[in-house]
Design brief:
The complex is a heterodimer. Chain A has ten helices and two strands; from the N terminus they run ααααααββαααα. Chain A is mainly alpha-helical. The termini of chain B are far apart. Classes of the chains: A mainly alpha, B alpha+beta.
Chain lengths: ~325, ~210
């Protein structure tokens, strides 16, 4: 006979397997790409109000970029103009939709309480995004003389891998957070003299109490012995959020290359990454604050109710990452197209 | 707790379908008549300088602009992949949607001065039709590409019968209800409905007696 825990594990494992199969099927079929894409499936949007304003700002900045690159070539001046435009483009681009932010935000809700670490993760993800674009254009177009078609294929490959990465990362988080939630939901021994129950929760080896009844969570048993256990999750977040290059960076890099000043495109890409980092960092901050607020309003982790709500929130965030990854992988854009 | 309601939209923000256009296309089109009937549209789509640099990357000889021969494979790939998107062109004859046959006479040229690439291709109508009113729009419903009629004289008539007239109209502004719907679609992550692209696109109207 299987124990309850083992049954649950089995169900989750089978479910995940099924999802991976479905996703693989969709990958094989391949989603229709815009004929004029640069390899990553970014749609556009024509919106009104604040969002429309954000969209029109980024578009204006993207238009100005080519002019700034030309100015550098013809007059030698204008480097700071290009850097400034690219930076602003990065800020607005990240303020618009993009899955990287969703991954970072969800990760922050599911895991992190440390704001500083969230900011570092946002920064690194943005930097990685820039580096991937530079690598694609620099290696393929500049060194190997690849054509647009080859660059497109490479970007598509990176994108598919990153979608699969998001889905797996989400699945991994959902699995862990789901277990933690189940543990929290299990009825606990009734309180005797005190409201506080200071004993290990049965069945959850990660839930431990210190000698002074302080409450902390140990890492998964599988990660024990690795002192930097949080590093793995953080690194996964950086990679899944930052692996997919953005079309704007690829375009400015190729344009700079065509103008014979590839370095200007590289500089523009880094300025863009800085701008993106600021916006993503702000979003990570919002995620942490929202979670803190939720925890405070429900009495914090120390109460059973707070614990359950916190765990539910984490599990939900993890599920959203999983769903997002699958949706991207399956080529659903959910917003039509 | 109310602020928690912010979280799902925050996460839905991540969906990729709603960035801004990355490619600008300036359009000129000829409406070609045969025997007094509308027979084809010939498109000339000029890409913005950045996308032009991308699409022509490493195609020209060292230091030279790419030639039409060198660009022919690009033109072919483009035209072939445009099929799935109905060539981003929505033609209506006398109020009814009409279908295109396979594109022909496609090529790509590169303007060395502006550093822009132009895709040329002809879209024959499946059957030439007598028309009192021929309307077409060019738009990408996903908004990745922003199509705009060229300034000046974007649409011309070739071989049109006497008395045909032509006008190009800019989209009228969305009314507040429609704007609301479009914004809501952002937050719900659902499609605002496929007719929004059409409402926001330029429109060419050919009226014949």
């Amino acid at each position: 006979m299987l124990s309850r825990g083992a049954k649950w594990r089995l169900v989750v494992a089978v479910g995940l397997l099924a999802l991976v199969c479905v996703a693989g099927e969709a990958m094989a079929q391949g989603a229709a790409r815009n004929p004029f894409s640069v390899g990553v499936s970014e749609g556009g949007g024509q919106y009104t109000g604040v969002l429309g304003w954000i969209m029109s700002q980024q578009m204006a900045f993207e238009r100005q970029m080519s002019g700034a690159v030309r100015a550098i070539r013809t007059t030698g001046a204008g480097f700071w103009t290009l850097a400034g435009i690219s930076f602003a483009y990065g800020v607005f681009h990240a303020a618009g939709p993009g899955h990287g932010k969703a991954v970072v935000a969800a990760y922050m809700i599911a895991n992190e309480r440390a704001l500083k670490r969230g900011l570092v993760i946002s920064g690194l993800a943005s930097l990685l995004q820039g580096l991937v674009a530079i690598a694609i254009v620099g290696v393929l177009a500049l060194l190997l003389n690849a054509t647009a078609q080859r660059m497109r294929d490479a970007a598509q490959w990176v994108e598919m891998a990153s979608f699969a990465g998001i889905a797996s990362f989400g699945g991994f988080l959902a699995w862990r957070k789901g277990r933690a939630l189940l543990t929290a939901l299990r009825p606990q021994a009734p309180a005797l003299a005190s409201r506080f129950v200071c004993e290990a929760v049965e069945g959850d080896e990660t839930h431990q109490h210190g000698p002074n009844c302080g409450h902390f969570h140990m890492p998964d048993p599988s990660t024990l012995g690795k002192p930097t256990f949080a590093f793995r999750d953080a690194a996964l977040t950086v990679i899944t959020a930052g692996a997919r290059p953005c079309s704007g960076a690829i375009l400015v890099l190729v344009f700079s290359m065509a103008q014979g000043i590839f370095w200007a495109g590289v500089a523009a890409t880094f300025a863009m990454a800085l701008g993106t980092a600021i916006t993503t960092g702000a979003l990570a901050t919002m995620a942490v604050l929202a979670k803190d607020l939720a925890m405070r309003l429900t009495g914090g982790q120390s109460s059973r109710r707070g614990e359950i709500i916190g765990r539910t929130l984490e599990f939900a965030a993890a599920c959203l990452v999983l769903l997002l990854g699958l949706a991207l992988l399956l080529g659903f854009t959910l917003a039509g197209v | 707790m109310k602020r928690l309601a912010l979280l799902p939209p925050l996460l839905l923000w991540g969906l990729p379908a709603q960035a801004h256009p990355h490619v600008m296309v300036s359009v000129t089109s000829e409406v070609i008549f045969a025997d007094g009937k509308v027979a084809a549209i010939r498109h000339h789509w000029t890409f913005d300088d950045m996308y032009s640099a991308f699409v022509t990357a490493n195609l020209g000889q060292e230091g030279k602009d790419p030639t039409p021969q060198e660009l022919q494979p690009v033109a072919q790939t483009n035209v072939e992949s445009l099929k799935e998107f109905d060539y981003f062109t929505v033609p209506k004859l006398n109020g009814k949607k009409v279908v295109f046959g396979d594109p022909r006479d496609y090529s790509m040229t590169f303007d060395g001065k502006d550093k822009t690439a132009t895709l040329h291709f002809t879209m024959p109508l499946k059957e030439a039709t007598q028309s009192k009113l021929f309307v077409f729009q060019i738009y990408d419903p996903s908004y990745f590409v922003a199509f705009q009629f060229d300034k000046g004289e974007p649409v011309t008539l070739a071989g049109a019968p006497q008395g045909c007239s032509l006008s190009v109209s800019k989209p009228k502004a969305l009314d507040s209800d429609e704007s609301k719907k479009l914004n809501e679609s952002f937050f719900s992550g659902l499609s605002p409905g496929s007719d929004f692209g059409a409402k926001l696109a330029d429109r060419a109207i050919v009226a014949c007696p």
